[in-house]
Design brief:
heterodimer; A: mainly beta; six-stranded mixed β-sheet; five-stranded antiparallel β-sheet; 11 strands; B: mainly beta; about 0% helix
């Protein structure tokens, strides 16, 4: 059973456009929601993260929007660039150590 | 910067072999993890360890075991490799406490023939 559901599976965006990736969860005990970026041949790297008591967090062109009541969170990439082309994973952490990952979104930004 | 190093980038083994995947982290993290990554399935947790000689099963532990004899090193063992264990294997480490992220190695792509 997938604890964190991620969509879309793949996304193609024009350079300069906005990329939006969505995730949903059921477990209200999750207390930390990171997003990871993975380039081919590399491991996932932390991009940005949010706590459930915050509705939005912005770092440069990357923003997480968090809707606690709907149990949804999303990643917005503003002014998308070809260098943003990668696979993105959302995740959620339960109490303790266990992280649950979404199935990933392959983003392609075309020039 | 945290560095998580996986000993092999690519590995090819035969069915029935015992396979060892090694992972080392340099940040004195208490917690270490092994995941496998398959297309369309995301990252699935195999085992994790929160201290030396301590281990916990993740979501898909069948066919795998782990060893953590030193804090910086976490090994994944395929007792008798099978073709359905062909996958990308990712190691991660994490500090205990609060909202600390996991730090990943670059993975080992394992093929079982």
């Amino acid at each position: 059973q997938q604890q964190v559901k991620q969509s879309p599976q793949s996304l193609i965006v024009q350079k300069g456009g906005i990329s939006i990736i969505n995730c949903a969860y059921e477990n209200t005990a999750f207390d930390y929601f990171p997003w990871y970026q993975q380039f081919p041949g590399k491991g996932p790297a932390l991009l940005i993260a949010i706590r459930p008591d915050v509705s939005e967090k912005k770092e440069g062109r990357f923003t997480i929007s968090f809707n606690k009541s709907a149990k949804q969170f999303s990643l917005h990439i503003m002014d998308s660039q070809p260098g943003d082309s990668a696979t993105y994973f959302c995740a959620a952490k339960a109490a303790g150590n266990q992280f649950y990952f979404g199935t990933g979104t392959s983003l392609t930004v075309i020039p | 910067d945290v560095k998580v190093t996986q000993s092999s980038r690519y590995l090819v083994k035969r069915t029935g072999e015992k396979v060892f995947l090694e992972c080392v982290q340099d940040m004195d993290h208490e917690n270490m993890f092994w995941y496998r990554q398959d297309p369309g399935l995301g990252l699935r947790l195999i085992y994790f360890s929160y201290d030396v000689k301590m281990k916990e099963k993740g979501d898909i532990p069948e066919g795998y075991s782990v060893s953590r004899e030193k804090k910086e090193r976490f090994s994944l063992i395929l007792e008798s490799a099978s073709t359905n264990q062909t996958s990308m294997y990712l190691c991660a480490s994490r500090s205990t406490g609060g909202n600390q992220p996991q730090h990943f190695g670059d993975g080992t792509r394992l093929s079982i023939l």
